[in-house]
Design brief:
By secondary structure, the chain is of the alpha+beta class. The protein has helices at about 1-5, 35-55, 70-80; strands spanning about 15-20, 30-35.
């Protein structure tokens, strides 16, 4: 595979679209499943790019970061709310 990636431009294949049910709802959400080759390329890029950018992210950035969780983000919000008056923005982005 390495030879293929070095000798020709990389073009990802279309993902396979599967619709999965949302718990507690009749709605379904799309799930895109990449090919094995595309997953390998994505993972290789992650190993190269993540260390470059990870150190520059804000200490209290939690989304999609290694070793970070939604629970840690909630704990941080509770910590800030307990420290006194603060601004809170609640947003619900659909689609």
């Amino acid at each position: 595979m390495e030879r293929l990636l070095r000798e020709s431009p990389y073009e990802p294949k279309p993902v396979r679209r599967v619709w999965i049910e949302k718990p507690g709802s009749r709605d379904k959400r799309p799930l895109g499943i990449p090919t094995i080759r595309d997953r390998i390329v994505q993972t290789a890029l992650l190993y190269v790019i993540e260390p470059i950018f990870e150190y520059s992210f804000h200490e209290h950035s939690y989304g999609f970061r290694p070793g970070r969780s939604a629970r840690q983000a909630v704990d941080r919000v509770e910590e800030l709310l307990g420290a006194g008056p603060t601004w809170v923005v609640d947003a619900d982005i659909k689609g």
